[in-house]
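Dear H.,

Thanks for agreeing to be a second pair of eyes. The structure we're designing against is below in token form, covering all 602 positions.
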């Protein structure tokens, strides 16, 4: 047996951050600059984290190109969330937005510029001026490579601030002491296969999304929801996991994303009759309605026989009228993606697109400081000592049931910075580490022993593929109660198989089979929380659209089955019991008036 308590090395830091995407590196920057000893673990080189793939922009009401202010941004985000977002967190994010964008500018982020030297901003879905009246230019962009520019800027600043990176290290489990406080993580060093304990006064999870629980996804292959799996195994519930965003414009058949910035620049969606069908569904915002709206409209067109191609199973995104010059200047990556993944020159002809899994609105519950919170008898939001979460793996919740484009990069910056500040303050007051419990590595050793002990069993790859196809079939754009119930049964069966995964190759050095098997144990937590939370929510809200609960309405896609009286509440899924509890949505902003719930039309 290679793994035992005897051959684990131990290291100590003020803070351990798991994840070197935009959120993790924004937090680490704040901490390294404050002089703390910070370790950042990442499965891949920092600048290969999924943030690098973000294309369209960062939302902030700078008002550089059209009149704007944070009140409009706040209103749009609440409405976009279908009233499941917490309005205190949304106010916090929208007010902080200009500040974190200017911070980035001062760090040297190469934003596109207007002739007067200010940051270029493009329109984006669901972002409006004057409370829904017309689209506004709010997305701060660096061509269609905004995430690339942002991640490189943050990495360079972290190198300058002397953050320690542990590259190709995979965190496996949280270590909680008898009081329930988190005192560090266990991690495997991929190159050697060695097991380590990293002790910390504070642990921050920034592991990104779990988009790889679906078969067709815009997400990177590393997005396996590891932070969510770690939290779930350590007894922390997962919030609002039924809400998954389908991005309207994934390249049909390839899954690769074409940014909403295309439509921001003026691209339009067409059905097989050559009709700009969004005019019917969202008369004011048209192609720039929020993503849940546009995805449902596209699916509806396909269902009613107006899809394109031999199988009538996609619609078209038309860009050629923007002109080759604009396309090459503002959307150079989209041009390349067209050629490489669809064999289409978008300056000349439209490109086939379908709604594709893109983003998880739910995650590890936190407050606006990034502190992880759980329900106790006294409180819905009791802080877990020593544990923070930021970025896509967290649920603060600013996106509610549907995220607006550009609000994720913003969320990473705002809450990464806020968590960094809060942790630095905590560190000032707490000079000592809490002692490590005697059973610190037991959970991890058990998992490794199970994998290495079995000589026959399931292949990790087969189990992972079955998770993905099951989620794709039973938790898609349009859901039915019967299909979700079936999904719950199937995922429960697959969970049994996860426990029977065996490693054929038990070697230590760069054993990617072991890494993959460990990832599947995270995938299943994310998949089961999604399926169970979805089947339990008997309404339509945001991205959760269930035909059984649609009320008759003149509007073919508005989620008319929203049931605020019974369901305006956050779901909390508990892994140990595979059961749900709920907590109220915070409708009270910090300083302004609440946006009262109403029907969403655009
Ligand atoms: C193609 C695409 C385009 C997008 N475009 C936009 C956009 O224009 N605007 C916008 O606002 N949003 C956009 N989004 C969403 C946004 O980019 C993501 O939500 C965001 O970048 C996630 O950042 P993160 O810091 O949470 O995680 P990530 O950037 O995904 O980073 C996760 C990090 O965690 C590490 N990690 C994970 N598990 C472990 C582990 N077990 N041990 C150690 N390290 C681990 C990884 O190595 C990585 O460093 C886009 C998303 C995609 C997929």
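And this is the sequence the design step returned. I haven't edited it by hand at all.
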């Amino acid at each position: 047996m290679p793994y035992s308590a005897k051959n684990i090395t131990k290291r100590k830091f003020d803070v351990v951050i798991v994840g070197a995407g935009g959120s993790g590196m924004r937090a680490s920057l704040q901490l390294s600059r404050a002089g703390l000893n910070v370790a950042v673990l990442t499965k891949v080189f920092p600048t290969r984290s999924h943030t690098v793939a973000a294309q369209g922009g960062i939302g902030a009401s700078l008002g550089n190109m059209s009149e704007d202010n944070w009140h409009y941004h706040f209103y749009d985000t609440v409405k976009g969330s279908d009233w499941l977002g917490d309005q205190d967190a949304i106010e916090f994010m929208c007010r902080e937005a200009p500040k974190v964008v200017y911070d980035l500018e001062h760090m040297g982020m190469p934003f596109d510029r207007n002739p007067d030297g200010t940051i270029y901003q493009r329109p984006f879905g669901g972002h409006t001026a004057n409370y829904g009246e017309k689209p506004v230019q709010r997305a701060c962009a660096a061509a269609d490579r905004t995430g690339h520019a942002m991640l490189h800027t943050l990495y360079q600043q972290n190198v300058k601030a002397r953050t320690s990176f542990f590259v190709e290290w995979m965190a496996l489990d949280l270590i909680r002491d008898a009081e329930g406080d988190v005192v560090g993580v266990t991690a495997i060093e991929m190159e050697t296969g060695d097991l380590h304990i990293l002790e910390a006064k504070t642990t921050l999870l920034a592991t990104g999304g779990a988009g790889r629980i679906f078969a067709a996804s815009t997400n990177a292959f590393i997005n396996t929801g590891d932070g969510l799996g770690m939290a779930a195994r350590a007894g922390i519930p997962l919030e609002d996991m039924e809400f998954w965003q389908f991005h309207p414009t994934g390249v049909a058949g390839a899954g690769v994303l074409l940014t909403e910035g295309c439509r921001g620049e003026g691209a339009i969606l067409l059905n097989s009759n050559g009709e700009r069908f969004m005019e019917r569904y969202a008369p004011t915002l048209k192609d720039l309605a929020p993503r849940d709206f546009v995805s449902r409209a596209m699916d509806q067109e396909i269902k009613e026989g107006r899809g394109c191609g031999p199988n009538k199973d996609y619609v078209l995104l038309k860009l050629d009228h923007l002109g080759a010059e604009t396309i090459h200047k503002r959307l150079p990556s989209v041009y390349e993606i067209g050629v490489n993944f669809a064999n289409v020159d978008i300056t000349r002809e439209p490109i086939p697109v379908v709604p594709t899994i893109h983003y998880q609105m739910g995650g590890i519950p936190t407050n606006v400081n990034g502190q992880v919170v759980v329900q106790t008898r006294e409180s819905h939001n009791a802080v877990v000592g020593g544990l923070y979460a930021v970025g896509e793996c967290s649920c603060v919740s600013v996106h509610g049931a549907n995220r607006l484009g550009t609000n994720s990069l913003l969320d990473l910056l705002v809450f990464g910075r806020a968590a960094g500040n809060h942790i630095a303050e905590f560190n000032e007051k707490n000079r000592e580490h809490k002692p490590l419990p005697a059973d610190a590595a037991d959970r991890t050793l058990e998992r490794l022993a199970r994998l290495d002990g079995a000589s026959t069993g399931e292949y990790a790859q087969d189990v992972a593929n079955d998770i993905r196809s099951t989620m794709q079939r039973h938790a898609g754009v349009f859901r039915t109660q019967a299909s979700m119930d079936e999904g719950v049964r199937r995922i429960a069966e697959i969970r049994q198989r996860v426990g029977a995964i065996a490693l054929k190759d038990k070697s230590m050095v760069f054993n990617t089979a072991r890494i993959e098997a460990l990832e599947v144990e995270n995938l299943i937590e994310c998949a089961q929380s999604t399926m169970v939370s979805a089947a339990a929510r008997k309404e339509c809200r945001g991205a959760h659209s269930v035909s059984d609960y649609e009320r008759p309405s003149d509007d073919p896609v508005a989620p008319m089955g929203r049931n605020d009286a019974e369901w305006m509440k956050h779901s909390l899924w508990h892994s140990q019991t595979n059961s749900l509890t709920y907590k109220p949505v915070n409708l009270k902003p910090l300083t302004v008036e609440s946006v009262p719930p109403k029907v969403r039309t655009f």
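Two observations from my side: The first strand starts at residue 8 and ends at 18. Residues 104 and 150 are 8 Å apart (CA to CA).

Warmly,
E.
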